[in-house]
Amino acid sequence: MRIAIASDHAGFDMKQELARWLADEGHVVTDCGPQSADRVDYPDFGYKLAKSVSSGAVDYGVAVCGSGIGISIAVNRHPAMRCALVSEPLSAMLAREHNDANCIALGARLTGIDMAKACIAAFTVGKFEGGRHAGRVDKLSNPPFAKEETR
């Protein structure tokens, strides 16, 4: 599987460890930055991650910041992205199965490395169920207010 990963400075150490672990698990990892723990702005790297996933260059994304909140908001600014903030494996699996999430966000200050790995493992094996969820997911990329704004 091709997975992009990005963080801010607060998530840098976790990003580095997760990237190594993902590669060891046989995934092709694209590091969208940053390349050091120097202070950076999470939107810059959330946007890079969103571009990588939405372009099809990778299958999924993993976003990490201190809480996971800021970077998930940044990733979700892209209309093709469905980034779910998760903190345990069940929410990660349901994000894939019910919401067709193509990215998960983790909070490095809130989630330990073993739990983060468990979340990613659950996310990557999950499959979108479609069915009753498909119409809801379609509305996420095609919200009704978007049509109103183009009138």
From TrEMBL:
<feature type="binding site">
    <location>
        <position position="99"/>
    </location>
    <ligand>
        <name>D-ribulose 5-phosphate</name>
    </ligand>
</feature>
<feature type="active site" description="Proton donor">
    <location>
        <position position="98"/>
    </location>
</feature>
<feature type="binding site">
    <location>
        <position position="132"/>
    </location>
    <ligand>
        <name>D-ribulose 5-phosphate</name>
    </ligand>
</feature>
<dbReference type="InterPro" id="IPR036569">
    <property type="entry name" value="RpiB_LacA_LacB_sf"/>
</dbReference>
<feature type="binding site">
    <location>
        <begin position="8"/>
        <end position="9"/>
    </location>
    <ligand>
        <name>D-ribulose 5-phosphate</name>
    </ligand>
</feature>
<dbReference type="InterPro" id="IPR004785">
    <property type="entry name" value="RpiB"/>
</dbReference>
<protein>
    <submittedName>
        <fullName>Ribose 5-phosphate isomerase B</fullName>
    </submittedName>
</protein>
<feature type="active site" description="Proton acceptor">
    <location>
        <position position="65"/>
    </location>
</feature>
<dbReference type="GO" id="GO:0016861">
    <property type="term" value="F:intramolecular oxidoreductase activity, interconverting aldoses and ketoses"/>
</dbReference>
<feature type="binding site">
    <location>
        <position position="109"/>
    </location>
    <ligand>
        <name>D-ribulose 5-phosphate</name>
    </ligand>
</feature>
<comment type="similarity">
    <text>Belongs to the LacAB/RpiB family.</text>
</comment>
<feature type="binding site">
    <location>
        <begin position="66"/>
        <end position="70"/>
    </location>
    <ligand>
        <name>D-ribulose 5-phosphate</name>
    </ligand>
</feature>
<dbReference type="InterPro" id="IPR003500">
    <property type="entry name" value="RpiB_LacA_LacB"/>
</dbReference>
<keyword id="KW-0413">Isomerase</keyword>
<dbReference type="Pfam" id="PF02502">
    <property type="entry name" value="LacAB_rpiB"/>
</dbReference>
<feature type="binding site">
    <location>
        <position position="136"/>
    </location>
    <ligand>
        <name>D-ribulose 5-phosphate</name>
    </ligand>
</feature>
<dbReference type="GO" id="GO:0005975">
    <property type="term" value="P:carbohydrate metabolic process"/>
</dbReference>
